């Protein structure tokens, strides 16, 4: 799409394709959300959108994507990539930033269909957006945050070499709960072989950049 080049942006890894989602991709994402993305009695998100019935979970997942599309500006952007594994959309990997040309800091967030857990997909898709951040966009920092009881997310973060960056208190379902924040500096990032970014150059002005 000439006026919205993000539709052609993608990242490929040895096993995955991360791409700006098409409407067909969103339909598949709705299926993954309806099937379930975490076990019962656990809430990894600030907004408990995944505790509704399957049909509403699917709609919530799709509507969130529409909201990110409509709210995208160079000063405050979020790209939510559909993650494709063996030809099937399996989850979402997001990367977002505010005032990126000044701060050079990105944040990440993701979810993965429950039946695809335990295969290293979560780690690989996070590596992919770190590659976009550092190799493609010229980021200096990458931050992430997770509830202290979200052990799978924390395991991915530690595996990738982030450093502790503080604890924050939040209200989750009217109960106090801590999140752990982590940060990776560009000099601590290690480029992974087989990771490639496609069609980034036409998108740079949307991120507020002339060059990385």
TrEMBL record:
A family per Pfam: Acetyltransf_3
Q: Which InterPro entries match?
A: Acyl_CoA_acyltransferase, GNAT_dom, Ribosomal_N-acetyltransferase
Q: Which residues form the N-acetyltransferase domain?
A: 44-186
PROSITE patterns associated with the record = GNAT
The cross-references to Gene3D superfamilies, in alphabetical order and at most eight, read:
3.40.630.30
Name listed for the protein in its UniProt record: GNAT family protein
- Native source species: Nonomuraea helvata
Question: The organism's lineage?
Answer: Bacteria, Bacillati, Actinomycetota, Actinomycetes, Streptosporangiales
């Amino acid at each position: 799409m000439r006026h919205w080049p993000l539709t052609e942006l993608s990242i490929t890894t040895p096993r995955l394709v991360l791409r700006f989602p098409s409407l067909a991709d969103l339909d598949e994402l709705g299926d993954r959300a309806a099937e379930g993305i975490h076990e019962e009695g656990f809430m990894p998100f600030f907004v408990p959108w995944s505790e509704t019935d399957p049909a509403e979970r699917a709609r919530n997942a799709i509507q969130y994507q529409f909201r990110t599309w409509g709210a995208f500006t160079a000063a405050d952007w979020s790209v939510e990539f559909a993650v494709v594994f063996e030809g099937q959309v399996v989850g979402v990997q997001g990367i977002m930033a505010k005032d990126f040309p000044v701060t050079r800091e990105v944040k990440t967030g993701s979810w993965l269909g429950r039946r695809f857990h335990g295969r290293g997909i979560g780690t690989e898709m996070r590596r992919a957006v770190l590659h976009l951040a550092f190799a493609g966009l010229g980021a200096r920092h990458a931050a992430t945050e997770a509830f202290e009881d979200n052990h799978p997310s924390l395991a991915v973060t530690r595996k990738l070499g982030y450093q502790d960056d503080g604890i924050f208190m939040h209200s989750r379902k009217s109960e106090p709960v801590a999140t752990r924040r982590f940060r990776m500096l560009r000099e601590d990032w290690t480029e992974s072989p087989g990771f490639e970014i496609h069609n980034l150059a036409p998108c740079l002005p949307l991120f507020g950049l002339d060059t990385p």
